[in-house]
Every structure is written in C-alpha cells, then in structure tokens.
Amino acid sequence: MYNESYWIGKEVEGRYKDIYTIFFRKDYKKELIEEYPHVYFTIEFINDCIKKQDFKCIEDIIHTTKKTITIEANKECLNDIPLSIFNHVHIIYRIKDINIERLKQADTISVDADWYRVYQVTKMQMIKTYPDDYKYDLKI
Predict the structure, then answer these.
(1) Alpha-carbon span 97 to 62, nearest angstrom
(2) Backbone region of residue 62 per phi and psi (left: phi > 0; alpha: psi in -120 to 50; beta: other values)
(3) Are 92 and 70 contacting, i.e. CB atoms less than 8 angstroms apart?
(4) Which of the four pLDDT bands, split at 50, 70 and 90, describes residue 139?
(5) CA 42 to CA 28: how far, in whole Å?
(6) pLDDT over threshold 90, residue 61
(7) Which SS3 state, helix, strand or coil, does residue 26 take?
(8) CB-based contacts of 45, cutoff 8 Å, min separation 6
(9) Which of 18, 65, 80, 121 has its CA 20 to 30 Å from the CA of residue 57?
C-alpha cells in the first residue's frame, strides 16, 4: 500500500504468493505479527535498517518465532545485509528494467553474475504481478 507504514494482505509476489502477510515499510510493531504466518520487510525498511545499523527487530523474529520472513533487496543494499539476517530470510532481489515488458513470453532473461556464470529464465516461467493483484491489501 502506497505510503503506508504497515498493512496486511496476501503476498502476491515470489515463492510465498497467496500467504496471508503483514508488510512493514516504516514502523515495525511486534504485536502485529502474531496472527500472520509471513512477515515482509520492504526495501525502504531494509534501507533504514542499514542506515541505522539496526536489524534487531528482524533478528528477534528469527530467534523467537517460527514466522516466514521475506525482505526486499537490490544491488545497492544486498551486501550491507548482515549474514545473521541474510542466511535466515527469503530475499526478493529487485532489478528494475522496464524493457522486460517488451519481451515475448518465450524470450529469455539472462543475468550475468560473473564471467561464464549466468542465470537464465524464460519470461513465461516468471510470476507476473499486476496492479490489480494488490487490491485486497488492507490498512490496519
């Protein structure tokens, strides 16, 4: 939900699609996570943790609950996420490139990780999320 600090809804992206989720963009409220199996921290939240060098709220969830946690990351922040978090959460790695919309379904997206280390997937194998998929998110 645009401009909201936190909200609830079904996850519509990634491998945990359709799981009832609480999302945090700014203000983390521990008491809100109890009834949700999945906790999601946006890139804004993660960037703030990096800036403050404080990941205590995520570490607390890892060590005291059995919640599934997803965090967003991009190339600017991925290396700044502590291993104590990195190794225990699901990461949605965001790459922004509007040209993917132009590709045909059978075209291949290729990410060069290093010299002769390439990851590829055809566009048709990817999960596409539409703006309408977010319509059931709720402010709390």
Answers:
(1) 32
(2) alpha
(3) yes
(4) very high
(5) 11
(6) yes
(7) coil
(8) 24, 25, 26, 28, 71
(9) 18
Do the domain assignments include residue 63? yes
Which amino acid is residue 37, in one-letter code?
P
Determine, yes or no, domain membership for 16: yes
Q: Select from 49, 59, 60, 50 the least CA-distant residue to 85.
A: 59
Residue 102, class by beta-carbon neighbours within 10 Å (0-12 exposed, 13-18 middle, 19+ buried)? Answer: exposed
DSSP states along 73-137 = E-TTTGGGS-HHHHTTSEEEE----GGGGGS-TT-EEEEEEETTEEEEEEGGGSPP--GGGGTT-
Q: Is the pLDDT of residue 128 over 90?
A: yes
Tell whether 113 and 73 lie within a shared domain: no
Please tell me whether residues 86 and 30 are part of one structural domain.
yes
Domain of 85, in residue numbers:
1-94
- In whole angstroms, what is the distance from residue 104 CA to residue 118 CA? 20
Classify residue 2: in a domain, yes or no.
yes
